[in-house]
Design a protein that fits this description.
There is one protein chain. It contains 14 helices and two strands, in the order H-H-E-H-H-H-H-E-H-H-H-H-H-H-H-H. It has helices at about 5-30, 40-50, 70-95, 100-110, 115-120, 125-155, 170-175, 190-200, 210-225, 230-235, 235-245, 250-275, 295-310, 320-345; strands at about 60-65, 165. The chain has a two-stranded antiparallel ribbon. Helix 1 (about 5-30) runs parallel beside helix 14. The longest helix has 30 residues, at about 125-155. It is elongated.
Amino acid sequence: MMEGEWRMEAGLAWLLKAAWIAGTLPILVASIPSSRPSPFHGVLSEFASRGKTRKPSSQKWTVPQSFFSQFYAVAVVWTTILLLATWHYAYKMAPLDSESLHFSTIASHLTGGSHTFSLHKSRSTSAEHRYRVWKSVFLLLLMELHVMRRLYETLYVFNYSSTARMHIFGYLTGLLNDITFRELKFSPLIDIEDFYIAAPLSLCTCCAAEVFNFMADQVAEINVEGRDLLSITGSDWWGYVKPITKLGWFEWIGAAIFIWGWVHQCRCHTILGSLRTDRTDEYQIPHGDWFELVSSPHYLAEMIIYAGLLVASGGTDFTIWLLFVFVVANLGFAAAETQGWYLHKFEDYPRKRRAYLPYIY
């Protein structure tokens, strides 16, 4: 890796770490137990609360909660671009076995050696680094699966009430800064689109700068040399997939944890969506699946999803650890607020249900 790329990746990692810490600290401060709610707690909840947890009297400066679909549309586009670019870079420049590396070198000599190959041939020579690149592809694949489902749910599963609102501060933060998601509802510093730009980047910080520079050179070859897209990407589809099958146990165990949380969140969101099929403003007590144990099982499932990503990453990247801590802190705060709302709203609400940790909290 060139020194410039190393500095770029180090700077990106530092920026992402700072963002996750900055997003987590206010939540932790607001979560400190107190005999009465602190003004900071109230401000935090007011700016970021939405849906049923937003007080009817605080509808000023709000927009419909159905605008979430715009956040997820951006999330899908961004994650897809990042996944395809990283995957193509991994295929071209980070072969996992010596045979594919030898083949790439021979192909370069037979074609006279492209400008892009010459420029990048020394960047992915470390076997350990090549493995991390393919691990990033795997993590981005899981994230792609997640954001595509979330976009589908906002369009076809959730029947948002006409009175379901979110503060315009959170909405504009998302549009202007491109980062949040529906569960991350109490962080005024990191909003939905912001989250879904920063989260995928956090999963591939080890190679992001290399990927961006590599793809810039690929685009230049198309524009300057007139090469077509197929000659750039190639048609060896199995070559794009085979290295993923060579990943280790950590990656596949993490994927299994991810799918476990993913499936249960899908079930819980379906239950929530079915409670208001006629788009009425009346809220009901949800039942079924993990709702029998906790009030916010979709938040618990989200934590499990990101725990799966953490395990699949091998747990060696501190940026991904900070991402996971942010998700847990944010959703834990949101679950506590939701639990209080349920207990206040329904006199017959099941008292055995915890906020988000079964039998514990």
